[in-house]
UniProtKB/TrEMBL annotation:
Pathway: Nucleotide-sugar biosynthesis; UDP-alpha-D-glucuronate biosynthesis; UDP-alpha-D-glucuronate from UDP-alpha-D-glucose: step 1/1. The keyword NAD applies. It catalyses: UDP-alpha-D-glucose + 2 NAD(+) + H2O = UDP-alpha-D-glucuronate + 2 NADH + 3 H(+). Keywords: NAD, Oxidoreductase. This is UDP-glucose 6-dehydrogenase.
Amino acid sequence: MIVKNICCIGAGYVGGPTMAVIAKNNPHLKITIVDINQARIDAWNDADVSKLPIYEPGLAEIVQETRGKNLFFSTDIDAAIDESEMIFISVNTPTKTYGKGKGMAADLKYIELCARNIAAVAKTDKIVVEKSTLPVRTAEAIKSILHNTGNEINFHILSNPEFLAEGTAVQDLLNPDRVLIGGESEAAIEALAKVYNSWVPEEKILRTNLWSSELSKLTANAFLAQRVSSINAISEICELTGANVNEVAKAIGMDSRIGSKFLQASIGFGGSCFQKDILNLVYIARSYNLNEVADYWEQVIIMNDHQKRRFSDRLIKTLYNTVSGKKIGMLGWAFKKDTNDTRESAAIYVADHLLNEQANLSVYDPKVSSFKIQSDLNYLNTRSEEENEASVKTESSPYEALKAAHAVAIMTEWDEFKTYDWEKIYSHMKKPAFIFDGRNILDKAAMQKIGFEYYSIGQ
Ligand SMILES: NC(=O)c1ccc[n+]([C@@H]2O[C@H](COP(=O)([O-])OP(=O)(O)OC[C@H]3O[C@@H](n4cnc5c(N)ncnc54)[C@H](O)[C@@H]3O)[C@@H](O)[C@H]2O)c1
Ligand SMILES: O=c1ccn([C@@H]2O[C@H](COP(=O)(O)OP(=O)(O)O[C@H]3O[C@H](CO)[C@@H](O)[C@H](O)[C@H]3O)[C@@H](O)[C@H]2O)c(=O)[nH]1
């Protein structure tokens, strides 16, 4: 199967960086990324690459290099489908907010719309690649739609889940641990493997059946999130016993069977994937009546919710059981450093809890706008937009955000937070000045020497 033109439906956090890296490494291929969101496409086409819709270290440079040469962004979805031999589906698959499976199952309506769109437009054989994260056996549904509504041409469906993490997307794409391709048609699998082969070594390209590939993605995220919940569970024991979670993590991480990565205790994991994908796994298990399996994985989420709640409860308790009318300076809003993504960020839930206790919040994040912070809070529907606006201020300087604050709450592990003039911050805060370090990034002894009352996770 000869592939010259590739289309990617969905110009988001996955579609944008993934296709940019494919374009960079395959100058002979024409890649068109399409989306229904005109504003997003306009931002991808902005001459000023600092205005791209997604912030990822190294991404702007690759887009600059490839855009207009072999990488294109467009809203003309039909034209891109028509001219391509290979079509990636990289649209969002959020948790359902209605009907059967509400709050658990993945909402596949955008996937189905894409399949129907491809079927309606395609006049020549197509390889359709599932790039979105999907429940196991979704390829069956896509196949059924394509074959029943298409123009009697051949569709080959592949599963090619994406494992990039935000903040390191470009590096992860350039040096992936593995590329996973699941499928039935060997020719289609090899056509996709060839695209990756231009920069990924052959031994890292893994071929499996469709269902193993789909399930491996959910499993990888469940295992990763489970590690975070596991170390967070231990952090609570540490706080009551005098053990130090950083020391425990180091000690267990040196066991090569356990490994040292993903053992950073925190305010809880966030991001658009972990919670959604585990809920999806739990839903799948329940739908097969595997209740013990479902309960096992659900506990990862229960622990994560507990960790977020525990953080704000501890802050309130330490501030003499009330934050009403007090200014709390929040450093960071993104769900992790080096991204402007705030989906499911622990900061949103901690802020909501503090607002319920009538705190005044002052937020600084190097990459997240005031508009985004307000809309994240409004989305929860806990209080009116006017109330959120009155109680939550966003500052463009961390020093301003922390001026006259009763406490600092560190929500994201941005590197710059470590380099601030903490003596200056201390001198402008209300006394006693508290730090609640939700990411264990500051030096406890140095903060205490300045005069702060310093609290971190698991110490
Ligand atoms: N964000 C990550 O780090 C990450 C990593 C690996 C896998 N994933 C998975 O990849 C998928 C995409 O995630 P994302 O973070 O890029 O989502 P996103 O919300 O950033 O982007 C999805 C895009 O698809 C567009 N879209 C939706 N329906 C469409 C349609 N019918 N036609 C054209 N465009 C349409 C939306 O407008 C949006 O711009 C999800 O399944 C997610 O679970 C995400
Ligand atoms: O030791 C750790 C590691 C991570 N986290 C938190 O866990 C969340 C997720 O972090 P990370 O996994 O680095 O970022 P994501 O972009 O959500 O990436 C995950 O989700 C993606 C979407 O499916 C997958 O592709 C990636 O492989 C998987 O790592 C963030 O809030 C982190 O702060 C911790 O608290 N402690």
